[in-house]
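Researcher: Re-running this chain for the archive, since the previous output was lost when a drive failed. Same request as before.
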Amino acid sequence: MSRPGLQGRSRRIGLLLAAAGLCLMGYGVFRGEMDIVFEKAVRICMECIGIG
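Model: Regenerated structure tokens:
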């Protein structure tokens, strides 16, 4: 048996964490981190298939 309200609190925590993650992703995009991460991902993929 679960306590009453536990499920609602758990849902609010999940939504809060999701909102925080979206805010941090937006901040990273604003700083230009998306380009850096994409360049690293391309480099790693090229090394995996033996081109880079």
